[in-house]
Amino acid sequence: MDVAMIGLGRMGANMARRLLRGGHRVVVYNRTFARAEELAAEGAEPVRELADVVAALAPPRVVWLMLPHGETTQAAIDELAPRLDPGDILIDGGNAFFKEDIARGTALAERGLRYLDVGTSGGVWGLEVGYCMMVGGERSAFEHVEPLLRTLAPPGDGYGYMGGHGAGHFVKMVHNGVEYGMMQAYGEGFELLEAAPWELDLGQIAALWNNGSVVRSWLLELAADAFAKDPQLEGIRGYVEDTGEGRWTVEQSIELGVPLPVIALSLYLRFRSRQDDSFSARVLAALRQEFGGHAVKES
Q1: Is 172 a residue of the active site?
Q2: Is 150 helix (H, G, I), strand (E, B) or coil?
Q3: pLDDT digits (tens, 9 = 90+) for 192-216
């Protein structure tokens, strides 16, 4: 099947490679053309301009975007949409807020274009293992691109149709919120183990828990790998970013009145990780000194 992959970062490039290995014809575009040229050696067909993508495909065209959320993705869609024909399919496989998908899908439908929002999970391991994909949008578009989804996904039930516009990214948003909570729980557990009165081998424990334990998971396998490389994680600063989906999950919990205390606290603790000396902690120390005469540490 023919497809264009727009955006050849860590995810997009490997997705293009997996599609090539699956026998698909893949046209590739990246703002830095050198990245597209790299994939030409593996069978991809690079184009220099975004507009050239349309000419390189026969209708009904399938154009898959793996670009940063926001203006970058929207600008690419704005450039491509007027050049596409009715029945062509645009896919956003990056992280996007589901309400934007609903508006975008409606606007593109007015042009006769079909739109899919594909929540994609798998990271740098997806090339070999496959990508878990949660798909929203027109059912007809989903059925048309299933050969691509089957190639990209792990064997078995590695992809699924979630519903209309926005459903794919909504499910991926909640997926990431759950991920926040799981990661925070592992982090806290290993911190307590590290503080124990014995010199525990954290890598051994992570590997042990992955054999029959109820807390076994792929994240725990990755923890074992990380401890094997750096047993005390001395080469890593405890500064944790977020991609935005955790925030959207918490915002939706407020909007829908669904309590998510673990996920919300996990998000706030990521914010806390970025503060070397938080003002709130200084306020607490000052209050303890004022009401109880407790000693404080000078900055």
Answers
A1: yes
A2: helix
A3: 999 999 999 999 999 999 999 999 9
